[in-house]
């Protein structure tokens, strides 16, 4: 089992640090080694990374993430996942939208909008893609087809190396045997995105006795959480801290509290997944006289404790929680 410790942070890994690490690693892999539209990405063409064996490492990290509670890499294009399953590329399933490389996509756009004269200026780029016919406006369609096939076929060695990494834990064998079952782990489907609705469904508030004033205040705070999450979905940019690098979103809010920003992969894990919300009505007993204190998060226990005194209105709640979110991204409490 992977155990994680972060330099400069005092957290002890009982699961949350591992999930935090894997969440950041998978997100970094998507940015660094893949390109294309969201959730329809292909490996970035890089012979330097291929020669260094980095795509094998990528496959190993993705296998560890899937095996040990990290996020699923649901950013693969359908054709790339199909190749991982059967090692074959079906040309009939490819079109220009399959091309992920930004330069080749630009070349396709230039060919489609070209005149006879401007097309001649693209001769070298077209020939480099393996087109051997006459370069003329009458051949625009086969030229685009050649560029599409070139963009895909040159990625085969990279995908083969990625498959080697996925052999860790026998994952690649499972993909080959059960391609339809494993597909939602690589190709985006339904019910995988963390949104406000999922977070609210996962929240289990520990409320005081009904009819008491404490109970009503606690319900108000739960409603404040809901308002903040839906507000972040409408436009997370305006919830960003001026000095902070990241705005709050439902996924980042969930990752802050639990260490993971993804929907649990297994149905049993999803069913039992819960975020416990507790309420501190007497923070003076803990900190003495003070003007402000912040929510306390325990990622391993998936728990957040809200200081009721400092969150009486939505504006107060929003200010205190956002400040805690932006300043509390490290694992500091043991």
Automatic annotation (TrEMBL):
InterPro entries from the UniProt entry: HECT_dom, Hect_E3_ubiquitin_ligase
Keywords noted in UniProt: Transferase, Ubl conjugation pathway
Span of domain HECT: 1-26
UniProt protein name: HECT domain-containing protein
MF (Gene Ontology): ubiquitin-protein transferase activity
Coiled-coil annotated spans: none
Top-level taxonomic group: Eukaryota
Organism per entry: Nothobranchius pienaari
């Amino acid at each position: 089992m992977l155990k994680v410790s972060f330099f400069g942070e005092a957290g002890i890994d009982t699961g949350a640090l591992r999930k935090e690490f894997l969440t950041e690693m998978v997100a970094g892999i998507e940015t660094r080694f893949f390109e294309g539209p969201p959730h329809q990405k292909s490996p970035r063409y890089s012979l330097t990374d291929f020669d260094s064996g980095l795509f094998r490492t990528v496959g190993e990290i993705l296998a560890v993430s899937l095996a040990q509670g990290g996020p699923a890499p649901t950013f693969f294009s359908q054709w790339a996942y199909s190749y991982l399953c059967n090692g074959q590329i079906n040309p009939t399933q490819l079109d220009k939208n399959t091309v992920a490389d930004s330069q080749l996509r630009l070349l396709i756009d230039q060919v489609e909008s070209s005149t006879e004269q401007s097309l001649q200026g693209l001769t070298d780029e077209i020939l480099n893609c393996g087109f051997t016919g006459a370069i003329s406006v009458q051949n625009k369609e086969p030229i685009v087809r050649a560029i599409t096939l070139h963009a895909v076929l040159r990625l085969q060695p990279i995908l083969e190396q990625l498959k080697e990494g996925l052999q860790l834990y026998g994952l690649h064998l499972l993909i080959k045997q059960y391609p339809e079952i494993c597909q939602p782990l690589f190709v985006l489907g339904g019910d995988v995105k963390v949104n406000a609705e999922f977070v609210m469904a996962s929240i289990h508030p520990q409320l005081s006795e009904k009819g008491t004033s404490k109970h009503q205040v606690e319900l108000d705070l739960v409603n404040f959480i809901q308002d903040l999450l839906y507000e972040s979905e409408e436009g997370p940019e305006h919830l960003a801290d001026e000095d902070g690098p990241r705005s709050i979103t439902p996924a980042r809010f969930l990752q802050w509290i639990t260490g993971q920003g993804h929907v649990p992969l297994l149905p049993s894990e999803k069913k039992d997944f819960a975020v416990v919300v507790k309420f501190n009505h007497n923070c003076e007993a803990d900190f003495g006289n003070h003007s402000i204190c912040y929510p306390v998060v325990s990622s391993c226990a998936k728990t957040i404790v809200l200081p009721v005194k400092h969150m009486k209105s939505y504006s107060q709640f929003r200010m205190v929680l956002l400040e805690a979110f932006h300043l509390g991204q490290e694992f500091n409490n043991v």
